[in-house]
Amino acid sequence: MDANNDDGEPPVLLLVGSSGGHLAQLLALRPWYESWRRCWVTFDTPEAVSLLAGEDLVPAHHPTTRNVPNLLRNALLAWRVLRGRRVAAVVTTGAGVAVPFVVLARLRRLHRGVRPHRHTDADRPSLPAVPVRDARAVGRAAAAVPGGHRRRDAAVSGETGTARRPQATPPVTASEPARLPRQRDSTPAAQIRLLVAVGTDKHPFDRLVDWLAQWHAQAGGPVGLTVQHGHTRAPQVPGAVPFLGHDALQQAMADADLVVCHGGPATILEARRHGHLPIVVPRDPARGEHVDDHQQLFARRLGAAGLVALCETRDALHAALAAGLTDPSRYAVAADPGAHAARRAAVARVGQIVEDLVAQSTRRPSRWRAWTRPGRGAEETR
């Protein structure tokens, strides 16, 4: 494979996924992959661009669901990326955008398609992934992969490009506190701060925005609104903004007393990490709000587990907001200090699996002819 080439170029880890929840899953592996040279392939949504500032980002064509033209465009993009970089491994969450990258990586005998299990934090159930061949070690992992936080662990030598096993991740100590959600003040506040986030999906979500505007017109108490409405038309309420960068969104969640959001896994997870029980209105594909019903299925599962306040009707949303306005503490969750150590251990396990697969691949010849890969600096075009 490419890791055996003696061109002096260090190997690259190729991380491929769509934006939103898929990107959040890949970012959770940062404690392991930070020591690698890496390249990202994802959608150029505002949040993704904000999260990957300073990274080698190749924007993929989207939407990908049931979109054959974009599949062909992404196949050409995959060919350009894989021939223009010394890719050691492809890591993906299984998003549709990764299909051509996985297929072409197979032709190169790369260990590709290593799919971390869907995140399982202490605040949400595990959704098992389907492992692919050449990644069977994932099926033997004892724990599902939870979210992680930034920590540098050596995994590959940048000078020689020699793959080696990552260092064991030390336990959390008193000098390295876990990231905990901000604990909310239970005393009465002069103004309730409400954050509404519909994400960055290209489909409008007029239903949620209209329901919110109707409630706000009748709200009995003072409410400070921040409404991130995305591609939905701007509502006639104060605090409406199309998009928030990642840092701004995190700050808005930290400052809010209540969070209302669509059924995006990344948004829900971040809200819970900030100590919120999010009020969730999933997008409905029958209304043209998304391409499929994955948000409905995901939100209903979490709602049944008591991990979100599920609202699928206007009356349910208005009732939840009225209850939150009266007592915001009803929509707060307790911090779990033990979850941080479990996340770090699971991330280290995934890193070890990928490192072992890369080490095995260095002993096998590539099926990809050397002349198909030009020198460094090849620039992808959309």
The H-and-E topology, N to C, reads as: EHHEHEHEHEEHEEHEHEHEHH
Please give the order of strands in the largest beta sheet: 8-7-6-9-10-11
Name the CATH architecture of the largest domain: 3-Layer(aba) Sandwich
Q: How much β-strand is present in the residues? A: 5-15%
Q: Report Rg.
A: 22 Å
CATH topology of the largest domain: Rossmann fold
**Main β-sheet, in a few words?**
6 strands, parallel
Helix content: 25-40%
Instruction: Determine the N-to-C terminus distance.
Output: 27 Å
Mean pLDDT: 76
Counting DSSP E segments of at least 2 residues, the number of strands comes to 11
The secondary-structure class comes to alpha/beta
Estimate nothing, just give the exact number of structural domains.
Answer: 2
**pLDDT below 50 for ≥5 consecutive residues: which ranges?**
1-6, 111-180, 368-373, 375-382
Helix count, DSSP H or I runs of 4 or more residues: 11
Query: According to CATH, what is the class of the largest domain?
Result: Alpha Beta
- Basic shape: globular
Could you explain the architecture of this structure?
This protein has 2 domains: 206 residues, 3-Layer(aba) Sandwich (Rossmann fold), CATH 3.40.50; 140 residues, 3-Layer(aba) Sandwich (Rossmann fold). The chain contains 11 helices and 11 strands. The strands form 2 sheets. It has a 6-stranded parallel beta sheet with strand order 8-7-6-9-10-11, sandwiched between helices. Strands 3-2-1-4-5 form a 5-stranded parallel beta sheet, with helices on both faces. α4 crosses α5 and α6 crosses α10. It is globular, with a radius of gyration of 22 Å. The two termini are 27 Å apart. The N terminus and C terminus are likely disordered.
